[in-house]
Amino acid sequence: MSEPRDVPCARIAAINTRIADQMFTETGSRALRFRARKLCEACPLRVPCLVKSFRQDATNDAIIGGLNYRERLAVRKKVAGEFQTTARRVGRLNASHVTRYLREHPEILDEARESVKTGYAAAHDKSEQKRSDRADYELKHMILMCTGFGSAFRDKF
Predict the structure, then answer these.
(1) Closest residue by Cα to residue 45 from 13, 9, 75
(2) Ramachandran angles phi, psi of 11, nearest 5°
(3) Is 79 or 32 the better-scoring residue by pLDDT?
(4) pLDDT 10s digits, 115-139
(5) Backbone φ and ψ of 27, nearest 5°
(6) What are the C-alpha distances in Å from 4 to residues 14, 41, 62, 66, 77?
(7) DSSP letter at 28?
(8) Disulfide check for 89: which of 16, 44, 53, 85 has CB 3.0–4.6 Å away?
(9) 86, 123 in Cβ contact below 8 A?
(10) Which residues pair with 64 in a beta bridge?
């Protein structure tokens, strides 16, 4: 197993702490956070790092184990279901058991990222639909008012 100082994030932090802070915290640019994700995905300590974040109950949007907070929460929920506990109690489970489970099921990490992306897309679609519905309503209302039928037919639309 790799030593903590041999992993990419530790090497970056040793060279330039400002860049490391921007890559792995919620304040960094999208490009730096993307690079942080890629580094984590290739890191041999990715899963133990992720499990450690469960124990520390990391609730910020930092990149930990290649995942942001919502993605880590999705992983916690999957792990909680497997170990028949709640997502909040995952951090209290035996770390070696959780680590072994996540190593045996690496697809869970990818599924977590996809489920969060799908959630973002669904929320975006819903807000777009609301905007579209509102625009349709306003257009119909404007046409009725301009044609003089506004007061008689307002409730039908």
Answers:
(1) 9
(2) -65, -40
(3) 79
(4) 887 765 555 556 666 666 666 666 6
(5) -85, -10
(6) 12, 15, 18, 16, 27
(7) S
(8) 85
(9) no
(10) 67
